[in-house]
Amino acid sequence: MSTTEPPVEGDAPLEDEAVAEDQDARETPEPLARDIMTTPVITVSPEMSVKDLAALFREQRVGGVPVVVDGKLVGIVTEGDMMAMDADIEYPHWFELFDSVIYLGSQKKFKEQLEKASAATVEQLMTDDVKSVAPDDEARVAATLMHKHKFDRVPVVEGEAVVGIVTRHDIMKILGL
């Protein structure tokens, strides 16, 4: 008489099945940034006019591009940056006290809004605090950066050279969505 009963639906998998699932998981490597990035990547220089940038976005059907100088990443410019040119500018609240003006809002943010609203070149419009990934970083590193910072794209940089770009669309493709 056998004391082993067949597994009931919902029971934990048998030890051999669990080992096989672990091996399958290890055999399927996680995709790297280089596996999903778009290449060649379109880049622009800081001196490009905003008018030419808008034409580039339309012609190439892209929503953002890295900004490079001598092959080195110095910023990123997106449609969102261009939309800031037409957005309402929020004046900082202030009050006067003893012949002094005290600002309640951020003067730095106000200055940045003014600069973007009046931008004539990519340099005046771009974001210079750029987050990037390396080609051998796992794709989820790029996805995490995009989610955490609310980015739509992340440049892929090898050494100092921009070699590709990973977009939300690229991430969605590997998720099968």
**Rg, nearest Å:** 25 Å
Q: What is the CATH homology-level superfamily of the domain at 31-83 and 121-175? A: CBS-domain
Work out the oligomeric state of the chains in this entry: single chain
Series of H and E elements: HHHEEHEEHHHEEH
Q: Work out the helix count.
A: 8
Strand arrangement in the largest pleated sheet:
1-2
Per CATH, the architecture of the domain at 31-83 and 121-175 is Roll
Q: Could you estimate the helical fraction of the residues in percent?
A: 25-40%
Which class best fits the helix and strand makeup? alpha+beta
Quote the beta fraction.
15-25%
Q: What coarse outline follows from CA principal-axis ratios?
A: globular
Instruction: Note the main sheet.
Output: 2 strands, antiparallel
Determine the mean pLDDT: 80
Point out poorly predicted stretches: none
Please, could you describe this protein's structure?
The chain has 8 helices and 6 strands, in the order H-H-H-E-E-H-E-E-H-H-H-E-E-H. With 177 residues, it is α+β, with helices and mostly antiparallel strands. It has a domain at 31-83 and 121-175: Roll (CBS-domain). It has a two-stranded antiparallel ribbon. The protein has a two-stranded antiparallel ribbon with strand order 3-4. It is globular, with a radius of gyration of 25 Å. The relative contact order is 0.19.
